[in-house]
């Protein structure tokens, strides 16, 4: 079992930055691939970024490449998403997710989810 708790969301102006964090419980964090998804009102949940269990491999959705950076610290059981050059279309609830094994772009392959944190970008 893994429990995930996100933090770091908030209101920011376009062009600004936010750093999301995800704290995980459990002693097997280093064996889980992690990801950030987001969901805007009326839209499906979409993958933002994913990182392998070791942290060696990362994936980014095209709409965040060059702006967002995913990272993890297996010693501290944490995952982070640094978001720069934020745009109003980045407004959504952001979710941390975990799955055993390799990373995936499919939300249905993730077994554990946080409660979500709201990110609002004003124009």
Structural class: mainly beta
List segments where confidence is low: pLDDT < 50 over at least 5 consecutive residues.
none
Terminal Cα separation, in Å? 40 Å
Number of strands: 11
SSE pattern: EEEEEEEEEEE
Structure annotation, total helices: 0
Q: Note the beta-strand portion.
A: over 45%
Percent in helix: under 10%
Q: Mean pLDDT across all residues, rounded?
A: 95
Strand count, sense and barrel status of the largest sheet are: 7 strands, mixed
Written account of the structure:
This protein is mainly β and 123 residues long. It contains no helices and eleven strands. The chain has strands at 4-7, 10-13, 18-24, 32-39, 46-51, 58-60, 68-73, 78-83, 92-100, 112-113, 117-122. Strands 2, 4, 5, 6, 9, 10 and 11 form a seven-stranded mixed β-sheet that branches. Strands 1-3-8-7 form a four-stranded antiparallel β-sheet, with no helix packed on it. Strand 5 and strand 6 (58-60) form a beta hairpin. The protein is globular. The mean pLDDT is 95.
Topology overview:
Blueprint: E1 4-7, E2 10-13, E3 18-24, E4 32-39, E5 46-51, E6 58-60, E7 68-73, E8 78-83, E9 92-100, E10 112-113, E11 117-122
Parallel strand pairs: 2-11
Antiparallel strand pairs: 1-3, 3-8, 4-5, 4-9, 5-6, 7-8, 9-10, 9-11
Summary of the model, kept short:
0% of the residues lie in helices and 50% in strands.
Give structural attributes.
single chain, mainly beta, 7-stranded mixed β-sheet, 4-stranded antiparallel β-sheet, globular
């Amino acid at each position: 079992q893994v429990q995930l708790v996100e933090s770091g969301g908030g209101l920011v102006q376009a062009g600004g930055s936010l750093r999301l964090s995800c704290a995980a419980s459990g002693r097997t964090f280093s064996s889980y691939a992690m990801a950030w998804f987001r969901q805007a009102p009326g839209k499906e949940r979409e993958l933002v970024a994913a990182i392998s269990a070791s942290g060696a491999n990362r994936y980014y959705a095209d709409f965040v490449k060059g702006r967002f950076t995913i990272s993890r610290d297996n010693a501290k059981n944490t995952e982070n998403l640094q978001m720069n050059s934020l745009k109003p279309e980045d407004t959504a609830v952001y979710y941390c997710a975990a799955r055993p094994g390799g990373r995936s772009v499919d939300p249905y392959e993730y077994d554990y989810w946080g409660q979500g944190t709201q990110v609002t970008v004003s124009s």
